[in-house]
Automatic annotation (TrEMBL):
Residues 17-257 form the AB hydrolase-1 domain. The lineage of its organism: Bacteria, Bacillati, Actinomycetota, Actinomycetes, Micrococcales. SUPFAM superfamilies: alpha/beta-Hydrolases (SSF53474). Keywords: Hydrolase. Coiled coil: none annotated. This is Pimeloyl-ACP methyl ester carboxylesterase. InterPro entries: AB_hydrolase_1, AB_hydrolase_fold. GO terms for molecular function: hydrolase activity. It comes from the Bacteria.
């Protein structure tokens, strides 16, 4: 495998354990800013967090094809470049959660503890849940846009939270507009239906040893991404897993219940 390109990161905190945050599909590292600042505390010494833009997202380079192994390799190279001697607590949500799991399995020497937020080590079949969002993004006439308000008015998404989340990927370069996220790559993956690599779980993990470190598995009670049937597979790969279900939270657990997630991570890191 060729060397992974450098990823864009944001640093929060000045001292304490190293913590890396990985976002979900169409997200960016800064989506974790509130959690990272709370972990760092008022004096910045509670944790040194690195908020990572995964490949094909935010300000990080784009890929020619999607691969969890390549995503994990890019994250590993990035974290080692920041601190070659550190072991990291890695926190990942959804797409970032799968990437974090692959990272821990492939680079256990780099990861001391793992926090997986509302995703399981399994195939979810297809990207059907995201196909509508991808189509909306592709329909937005970038060449006709005049202002961000114009983009918001034209973007056909009724949920204001989802609209704001997706439109964070829209960037202006001079008089033109572009998507920071690699929408074309995601659209091509979604078009494969059940052949989606993003929705899948990489088969290569079956050849790897279980991760020996502690794992905190956070689920939203109102989310369908994790079921009781997923526990055996999770335990097979991560024997030291402990599950926390956050009452009233959806798939976006850290957005719905940030204080609960902060406290859970803080206690987990301190143990």
């Amino acid at each position: 495998m060729s060397p992974a390109p450098p990823l864009h990161t944001i640093s929060v905190g000045t001292a304490g354990p190293r913590v890396a945050f990985l976002h979900g599909l169409f997200g960016q590292g800064r989506n974790w800013s509130q959690i990272a600042k709370a972990l760092a505390g008022p004096d910045g010494t509670g944790a040194r967090s690195t908020l990572v833009d995964l490949p094909d997202h935010g300000r990080s380079p784009w890929s020619q094809e999607f691969s969890f192994e390549r995503y994990a390799a890019s994250v590993a190279d990035t974290l080692q470049a920041i601190d070659a001697d550190a072991q990291w607590v890695v926190v990942g949500h959804s797409l970032g959660g799968k990437t974090a799991m692959v990272l821990a399995l492939e680079h256990p020497e780099l990861v001391s503890r793992l926090v997986v937020v509302d995703i399981a080590p399994k195939s979810y079949g297809s990207l059907e849940r995201f196909s509508g969002y991808i189509e909306e993004m592709q329909r937005l006439p970038l060449s006709e846009l005049t202002t961000r308000a114009d983009a918001e008015a034209r973007f056909e998404e009724p949920d204001p939270g989802v609209k704001a989340f997706l439109l964070q990927n829209l960037r202006r370069d001079g008089d033109s507009w572009r998507w920071q996220a690699n929408v074309g790559l995601f659209a091509a993956d979604a078009a494969t239906g059940d052949g989606s690599r993003i929705a899948a779980w990489p088969a290569s993990t079956a050849e790897l040893k279980p991760f020996p470190g502690p794992v905190l598995w956070i689920a939203g009670s109102e989310s369908s991404y994790i079921t009781d049937d997923d526990l055996p597979a999770m335990r097979a790969l991560f024997p030291k897993v402990r599950q926390l279900t956050v009452k009233g939270a959806t798939h976006w657990v850290h957005t719905d219940a940030p204080q609960v997630v902060v406290e859970a991570i803080r206690r987990f890191v301190a143990r």
